[in-house]
Amino acid sequence: MLRAAVYPLAAIVALALIFLLISKLHAVAVLASGLAVVAGGWLAARIALNGGAQAAASAVGRLVAAMALKWVLVIGVLAIGIIQFRFPPMALLAGIAVGMMFQVLALARR
After folding, report:
1. Rounded distance, CA 14 to CA 98, Å?
2. What is the pTM of this model?
3. Which residues cross the membrane (predicted)?
4. Angle between helix 89-108 and 2-19 (nearest 10)
5. How far is CA 24 from the centre of its chain?
6. Looking at residue 85, what DSSP letter applies?
7. How far apart are CA 46 and CA 22, in angstroms?
């Protein structure tokens, strides 16, 4: 799971450096949403994979709860970033998209 957190984090930092050319606010927005994706993925992995051998219904329940918690965290950061901090929405969405894309690529890599 460490690899699934390191690769997206590196991609988020690189994207934030690119958005820094536009403004500091854009770079902070990318970092905020990207870190929410990485933290949500880490938290979801801890919840989903921390039960040992279980019955199928219990394992699926843990997976669903983990995924729901991850998306609540990501959508919460998105909402707070837009409403309270007035972050640029496209920068927030770019951070989420890049974080999710690199998280999936890191997990698919063998």
Report:
1. 10
2. 0.89
3. 5-22, 28-49, 61-83, 89-108
4. 150
5. 20
6. S
7. 36
